[in-house]
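Q: My hope is that you can spare some time for a protein that puzzles me. Underneath my words sits a plain record pairing an amino acid chain with its backbone structure tokens. Those tokens are not coordinates but codes from a learned vocabulary of shapes. Thank you; the sequence and its tokens follow:
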Amino acid sequence: MLSLIERIKICQLVREETARITNEILKKNSALSEVDFRNLTIKNLFDQRELHQSGWYDPPPFGVAALFSQAPYTRLQFDTLRSKKFWPQKENFLTKESVGIIYLSPVHRESGIIGDFGATFYYGKDEKIVRHLKKSLSLLEKVTDFIEIGMEFRKIHEFAQQLFQKNEVNNHRTTVHNDPAGTNLGHTVPWTYEDPTTEEEKIIEDGDIETLRNLISKKRIYINALEKFKIPSTIAFTFEARLEDSENSHLPNAFYHLIVCFINGKKTILKNFECIFLAR
């Protein structure tokens, strides 16, 4: 059986590869539709034998989301990517003035470990949008800087909400069906802080993606206002608040998916956004 540290390193590698391939797709294709992006992701990422041929977060189909929108950016105002109206559409194209949100949910075959990646990107020149996106990412980074071993998830949520309110942004649109608190800021990566049970190991080994994605979904512990789970010395969990400007509803939704990793007490934050910002 893989160790916890080996599983976290798998999460890191899958995440890095997903970001790299996303960068290549955006860099080489100047007139992408949302469906084009999804199909190229399936071809270039999920065809790798180390990964399942579909992501765990499905729907949207194949576990890939792409939202490309020009002003007024209503397409980016999603409550959940599972809703069919927010699945990739062939009519929506990425242009120089578009704001794009992408999300991919790859699953490592051998371990069942996920390496999700998501980001908002914009190659236009509207300074208000640029400032909003930079500010949103900076706030998320401040929260991840605050996180430490032994901290309860609800403490992270409390700190983040106070920071968001102070800086006039919010994540009110987020809804999660499986989360008893209704909204959350992220969740654990299953099997990075505890070993799978015998039954779970069999599901991972059998490789049926539908059964596995249901297991992954149910195994997550959420960062919400109620959760008392304490961060152990070795774990990986996501921090992925979607932020909107509380004073200017015309600014786009900002989504940056980070993964916080602790290995024997040493913290690393997986970002991998640089390539997305520089893709064009």
Strands lie at 64-69, 99-104, 117-122, 169-170, 235-239, 242-245, 254-255, 258-263, 266-270. The chain has one domain: 4-277. The chain has seven helices and nine strands.
